[in-house]
Amino acid sequence: MPHKRQHDINNVQDHAGGTNNTVIGTDGGVLAEIPFSSGVANDNLVRRDASGDIAVNLAPGGASAAASKQYVDNVAVGLKWISPAQVLNIKDDGDAGGAPPAANAGDAFVVNNWGGGYNDGDIVEYDGTSFNVILSNVGGEPPNGTRAVVIDAAAAGSFAGHEDEIATYDTGTSLWSFTSPVDGNAILMVGENGINENRAYTYDATPGEWIQFSSLGAFEQMQFYFGVDGTLTVGDDQTLWLVAGQAVTAIEAYAVVKTGPTGAALTIEIEKSSNQGGAWSTVVSSAALQIADGSQEGEATGLSVSIAKNDVLRINIDQIGSTVAGADLSVALKVIK
């Protein structure tokens, strides 16, 4: 039997405690994290002054530096926070005719005659596999004051023609009203269980789009690691299960072997379970994550699959090389919070 091993999830943004925590500053004119201590260069955005007190420098660097006064104005001082929203990409609230609409990951809808146990007035979002309720209805309509951002030019129903605007629901009129963002508006997504929960976005009037920025609510990247020692065989449960300590979204997966397969591709599937292995669903399919015949590495990108807190993860090997099976497999699943 091959020896099985796995590694726990790692948060790549953790920093050690103590007096030398990093701060945002400039390193040769490039925005960077630098030691947070007395006596560091005066071009830091945040630094300790001569007496050791925390100070904010509003005129760091030269005009061309990433940490210039213009950068501070645009990214910090210039942000104009507006009320949070539940979803980032509301698409439609029209009559669906008894069946859920086709959707891409991140698309959100107001349920209207979907059938199938869905409740009219719920705000739901598609995670790439299924629809999740982001905000429950009150009396068959969205709660008063519900806010959503219209991202897609192809939005329909009440949202048609309102690309990039913020929609607000009024139960008194049972209508959505719309406001146009201005350059520098910042908004936080607060819809529970949403793909974009706790991420913040700012509106850039040129070219005219909402952009996630690295401040409050910015995403954190993490990875799950799996490994299988020795010659590979086909089968499920190739390692011990890993558990998600928080809700995340899978975005990419990578696989590498010390000995590559020959005669056929090596195909790997990553699955999740919310009931300790009672049922499994696909996070990364074996059609997406493959190491080709004669190769030693492969990747699956462009994913957007939600993994809930306390979900467990496993890898399956669906196919091995027909001449040389392949050996010593490592798999990394990249996720964002």
**Helical proportion, percent range:** under 10%
Instruction: Report how far the terminal alpha carbons are from each other.
Output: 36 Å
User: Are there runs of 5+ residues with pLDDT below 50, and where?
Assistant: 3-49, 53-77, 215-219
Q: Would you tell me the structural class of the helices and strands?
A: mainly beta
Strand content: 35-45%
Would you list the SSEs in sequence order as H and E? EEEEEHEEEEEEEEEEEEEEEEEEEEE
Radius of gyration of CA atoms, rounded to a whole number: 24 Å
| Count of individual helical segments | 1
Q: How many strands? A: 26
Major β-sheet profile:
6 strands, antiparallel
**Count of the separate structural domains:** 2
Overall, the morphology is elongated
Question: Taking all residues together, what is the mean pLDDT?
Answer: 80
Summarize the structure.
The protein has about 325 residues and is mostly beta strands.
Describe, in plain words, how this protein is organized in 3D.
- With 337 residues, the protein is an all-beta fold.
- The protein has two domains: 90-212, no CATH class; 221-336, Sandwich (Jelly Rolls).
- It contains one helix and 26 strands.
- The protein has one helix at residues 69-77, and strands at residues 4-11, 22-27, 30-35, 46-48, 54-56, 80-81, 90-92, 108-110, 123-126, 131-135, 147-149, 166-170, 175-179, 185-188, 200-204, 209-212, 221-231, 242-243, 248-259, 266-273, 281-284, 290-291, 297-300, 305-307, 312-319, 327-336.
- Strands 1, 17, 19, 23, 24 and 26 form a six-stranded antiparallel beta sheet that branches. Strands 18, 20, 21, 22 and 25 form a five-stranded antiparallel beta sheet that branches. It has a four-stranded mixed beta sheet with strand order 6-14-15-16, with no helix packed on it.
- A hairpin with a 2-residue loop joins strand 2 and strand 3.
- The chain is elongated.
- The two termini are 36 Å apart.
